[in-house]
Amino acid sequence: MNSVSATHHIGIEEPLRIGDDPAIDFLNTTVMENGVLTDRLQSDADVLQWLRIMGFGKPNTVAFASGTLLKIARTIREALRIAVENASTGKAINWRYWNTLLVKSPSHLVINADGCSTTQRWGTDSPEQVLGPVIAAAVELLTTGDFELVRKCDDDACVLWFYDRTKSHRRRWCSMSTCGNRNKVAAFRERQQAGA
Ligand SMILES: [Zn+2]
Questions:
Q1: What is the pLDDT of residues 79-101, one digit of tens each?
Q2: Domain containing 72: what range?
Q3: Residue 1 placed within a domain
Q4: What is the 181 CA–ligand 1 centroid distance (Å)?
Q5: How far is the CA of 62 from the centre of ligand 1 (A)?
């Protein structure tokens, strides 16, 4: 990521869930909006809201210094981007970095009210703890993911990734309604012009 616009604020009320994987959905919080690389996470509140919307249930406010949650979230996200790109091209992943994050984000199980199931919980004392579910999802993806199927959208101008869980494993686009449709129309026009 070279130039992430800090002025072009886009709401995160509808986070992109096209990744088919929570860690990839986290990657996809930077998007191309009208040709501008845009970071949908612009504040601690944005990060907390994203976590809540994604079902990672977190508090409305945090006790640590303002701005640190956003800073750590962005750092982890860009480390994940490098790790995913490395895994996709057969390069080594910096496991020491992820192990350090795991040490900083311990979790425990809580027995649910039904008495026959448990839920994994993280603390809220540090940015890494608040981001614990995302770190866990990232480690899960990096250690168990099939990186033949973790791909970037085929549109050159698009920065979105997805985990191709389709049966045919031929998914090419982040979304059919955006990149897929645009490229289909472009291909159709090309064919028409070639035939004309
Ligand atoms: Zn796309």
A1: 999 999 999 999 999 999 999 99
A2: 22-195
A3: no
A4: 10
A5: 34
